[in-house]
């Protein structure tokens, strides 16, 4: 139920149910609730029909007032005996309701004149809410209520409660779903014999889930094992399998340069020059990637590996194969700091081997940028490193063979879409910018994405969008595990003493300042104040400051000083979260650790433990901690495995947060769960390959039914 209880009397004109809006009209002006529905992906009738209740309320029966018990949630019907505004303590509306069996008080702490009218003496009222013992006898505080007559029939089915948003009243959404369900074409699309035995037709399943008969126990529906739910999950998994197969088939028709590494070529020379040997896991993923880019079809591969597992060198080797074959390589990172780190590392590895590198970020403007852009267009710069400035309109590659995106989950959907568009459109770019180009028409570059955050979203994407996955599942040898300690902020002085000891031993330290969600401004104040505090407490220690408001050149200068060891302690906001690599740093202090997400803490912690020295991560918290807060910090102290942390994160956050992700269209499986529903997934796989072979029309129709409104996200 909506948390604020609006009067539930029938409005004089019922809210108009939305007309099916064709997607072309998406740009047109939409009314508030319709816009809110679009945000939830509710565009077509079938989208509404597939928007399923998260729970149900039973409004099919009335409880006699005399048999109410405390803490029951119940529905009663009676005649108003008294309705008065009480003003003595706080202003509130008190209503005495009586049926044949007894009397009940309804208490409204917020009310409008319209409520008073509905609840006037003599009115017959139906009210539903939780019963509790009050000062004046049994009462319901803020029940839902509506005016009825003695003849008003009770609903025959359970009332659905839909996932919604603040801008979308439940009553409006219910009406919209009802009419969407009635209009949607829900005929069976799947040929006979393809739906697993025992599962009902889709139309019946939806009818039941939206309007379950009163005999059904809501609990049975809310846990999604009911055959009606199974049918929906099956259809959803099938759509996912089909769309993935379709995307793969489409990709196989696209051309990409077949990049071969020659013996003694650039990649071989890079391996020989590295100061370390690749781990077996690195060797395996390099083999997977080189096998892919060997083929004349574009690679779409996600390289995942925990923080510090050594993804950069894998990227460098893929780049070396590409450039050795005479094609350009672009490497993009979500932040300038990270791009700069890559730049330094890759340049350090590749320039001695004769590679010219260009550097493109948002802060590089004017002449400097033009010069770089010209080098990219002429093909002189073989390696192009930067932020998303790399894919801006004025950048045209001469021969782009491979695009690498680091920390890909940090790029927004819009940027990922822009990248895809850019990669698919090489020949047009030269026309647009007028730059000379010998780009080969119709050739797409290969795409390698890297991520240290194997969050479920990424997993979902890998099943949905057409991605192959390589995983680095071991860390380079010689790393001593990071010890994580959780301290209350009262231990601050002891922590500062520890910093001094660390610095005296020649080590370096990060201090990460609290995250203030609402305000970048407060973030900055905090970081500045902490910088002053620590500089005063640690005289003679070079203390640097790094925050998001600094100019890129300033940030780069501070990072360079820290990397060179001139600064011993770096006070920073979360700008250092991804990818920063200073092996001599051995202590990481995270202040107000309770304000960070687990994935983020794990990323931050990964900034230490990069060399051979034993490293420590101190999580400072300010109490009191909620039980969830405790569980999160405990999880951090107990495990270092990024996958395990992602799993616990999900457990702790629970499904509530999931809605957020779902609403933004990021989590692409709404009903099925890849782990829980693996049996259904197997069945869907088998059916998918049969449909693709034998029933192309049913395949297209099924994917259209399930995924058309999500198409934008699927491309990303
Ligand atoms: P991430 O996967 O988090 O991007 P990096 O690529 O930044 O990790 O690597 C972390 C550190 O480990 C770097 O200093 C890198 O040079 C080093 N490294 C990578 N591979 C190896 C290896 N096989 N042996 C030793 N050190 C390695
Ligand atoms: Mg990295």
Tag the structure with descriptive keywords:
Rossmann fold; binds adenosine-5'-diphosphate; six-stranded parallel beta sheet; 24 helices; OB fold (Dihydrolipoamide Acetyltransferase, E2P); seven-stranded parallel beta sheet; binds magnesium ion; alpha/beta; disordered C terminus
Give a description of the structure:
Helices cover about 40% and strands about 15% of the residues. The chain has about 725 residues and is of the alpha/beta class. Among the domains are: about 60-155, OB fold (Dihydrolipoamide Acetyltransferase, E2P) (Beta Barrel), CATH 2.40.50.140; about 265-470, P-loop containing nucleotide triphosphate hydrolases (Rossmann fold, 3-Layer(aba) Sandwich); about 480-640, P-loop containing nucleotide triphosphate hydrolases (Rossmann fold), CATH 3.40.50.300. Strands 11-12-10-13-14-9-15 form a seven-stranded parallel β-sheet, with helices on both faces. Strands 16-21-20-17-19-18 form a six-stranded parallel β-sheet, with helices on both faces. Strands 2-3-4-6-5 form a five-stranded mixed beta barrel. The longest helix is centred in the middle third of the chain and has 26 residues, at about 225-250. The chain is globular. Magnesium ion binds near residues 311, 312, 406 and 579.
Topology:
Elements lengths: L31 H8 L5 H5 L5 E3 L15 E14 L5 E7 L4 E6 L4 H6 L5 E11 L2 E5 L2 E5 L10 E3 L8 H14 L18 H9 L7 H5 L4 H26 L13 H8 L6 H14 L6 E6 L5 H14 L3 E5 L3 H15 L6 E4 L5 H13 L4 E4 L13 E6 L7 H12 L1 H8 L12 E6 L4 H9 L3 E5 L10 E6 L3 H13 L3 E5 L7 H18 L5 E4 L5 H12 L5 E4 L12 E6 L7 H8 L10 E6 L5 H12 L3 H22 L14 H17 L1 H12 L3 H5 L1
Parallel strand pairs: 4-6, 9-14, 9-15, 10-12, 10-13, 11-12, 13-14, 16-21, 17-19, 17-20, 18-19, 20-21
Antiparallel strand pairs: 1-8, 2-3, 2-5, 3-4, 5-6, 5-7
Helix pairs in contact: 5-7, 7-22, 7-23, 8-10, 9-10, 10-11, 20-21
The structure holds adenosine-5'-diphosphate (ADP) and magnesium ion.
């Amino acid at each position: 139920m909506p948390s604020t209880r609006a009067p539930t009397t029938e409005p004089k004109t019922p809210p108009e149910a939305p007309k099916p809006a064709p997607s072309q009209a998406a740009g047109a002006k939409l009314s508030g609730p319709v816009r809110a529905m679009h945000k939830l992906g509710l565009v077509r009738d079938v989208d509404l029909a597939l928007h399923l209740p998260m729970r149900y309320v039973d409004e099919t029966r009335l409880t006699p007032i005399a048999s109410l018990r405390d803490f029951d949630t119940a529905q009663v019907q009676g005649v108003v005996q008294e309705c008065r505004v009480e003003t003595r303590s706080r202003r509130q509306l008190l209503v005495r309701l009586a049926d044949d069996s007894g009397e009940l008080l309804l208490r409204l702490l917020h009310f409008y004149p319209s409520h008073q009218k509905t609840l006037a003496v003599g009115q017959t009222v139906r009210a539903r809410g939780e019963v509790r013992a009050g000062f004046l006898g049994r009462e319901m505080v803020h029940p839902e209520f509506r005016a009825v007559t003695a003849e008003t029939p009770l609903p025959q089915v359970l009332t659905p409660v839909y996932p919604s948003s603040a801008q979308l009243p439940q009553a409006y959404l219910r009406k919209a779903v009802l009419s969407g369900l009635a209009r949607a074409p829900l005929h069976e699309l799947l040929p006979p014999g393809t739906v697993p035995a025992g599962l009902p037709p889709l139309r019946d399943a939806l009818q039941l889930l939206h309007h379950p008969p009163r005999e059904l126990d809501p609990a049975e529906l809310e846990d999604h094992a009911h055959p009606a739910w199974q049918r929906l999950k099956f259809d959803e998994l099938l759509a996912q399998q089909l769309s993935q197969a379709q995307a793969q088939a489409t990709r196989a028709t696209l051309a990409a340069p077949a990049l071969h590494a020659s013996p003694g070529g650039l990649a071989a020379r890079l391996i020989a020059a590295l100061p370390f040997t690749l781990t077996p896991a690195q060797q395996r993923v390099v083999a997977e990637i080189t096998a892919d880019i060997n083929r004349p079809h574009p690679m779409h591969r996600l390289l995942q590996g925990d923080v510090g597992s050594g993804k950069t060198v894998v990227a460098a080797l893929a780049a070396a194969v590409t450039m050795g074959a005479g094609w350009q390589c672009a490497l993009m990172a979500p932040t300038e700091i990270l791009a700069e780190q890559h730049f330094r590392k890759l340049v350090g590895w590749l320039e001695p081997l004769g590679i010219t590198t260009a550097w493109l970020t948002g802060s590089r403007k004017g002449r400097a940028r033009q010069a770089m852009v010209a080098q990219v267009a002429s093909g002189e710069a073989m390696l192009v490193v930067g932020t998303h400035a790399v894919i801006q309109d004025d950048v045209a590659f001469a021969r782009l063979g491979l695009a690498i995106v680091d920390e890909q989950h940090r790029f927004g959907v819009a940027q990922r879409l822009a990248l895809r568009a850019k990669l698919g459109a090489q020949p047009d770019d030269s026309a647009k910018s007028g730059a000379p180009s010998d780009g080969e028409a119709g050739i797409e570059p290969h795409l390698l994405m890297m991520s240290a955050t194997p969050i479920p979203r990424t997993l979902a994407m890998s099943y949905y969008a057409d991605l192959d996955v390589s995983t680095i599942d071991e860390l380079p040898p010689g790393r001593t595990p990071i010890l994580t300690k959780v301290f209350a902020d009262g231990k601050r002085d002891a922590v500062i003493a520890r910093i001094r000891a660390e610095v005296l031993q020649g080590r370096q330290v990060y201090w990460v300042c609290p995250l203030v969600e609402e305000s970048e401004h407060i973030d900055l104040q905090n970081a500045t104040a902490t910088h002053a505090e620590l500089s005063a407490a640690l005289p003679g220690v070079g203390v640097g400051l790094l925050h998001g408001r600094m100019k890129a050149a300033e940030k780069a200068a501070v990072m360079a000083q820290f990397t060179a060891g001139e600064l011993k302690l770096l006070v920073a906001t979360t700008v250092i979260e991804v990818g920063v690599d200073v092996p001599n740093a051995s202590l990481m202090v995270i202040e107000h650790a309770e304000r960070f997400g687990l994935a983020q803490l794990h990323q931050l912690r990964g900034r230490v433990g990069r060399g051979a020295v034993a490293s420590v991560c101190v999580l400072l918290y300010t109490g009191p901690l909620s039980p969830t807060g405790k569980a999160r910090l405990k999880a951090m102290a107990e495990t270092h495995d990024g996958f395990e942390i992602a799993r616990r994160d999900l457990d702790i956050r629970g499904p509530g947060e999931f809605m957020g992700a779902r609403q933004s269209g990021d989590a692409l499986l709404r009903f099925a769960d890849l782990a829980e529903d693996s049996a259904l997934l197997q069945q869907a796989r088998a059916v998918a390959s049969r449909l693709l072979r034998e029933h192309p029309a049913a395949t297209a129709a099924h994917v259209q039914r399930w995924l058309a409104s999500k198409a934008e996200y699927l491309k990303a």
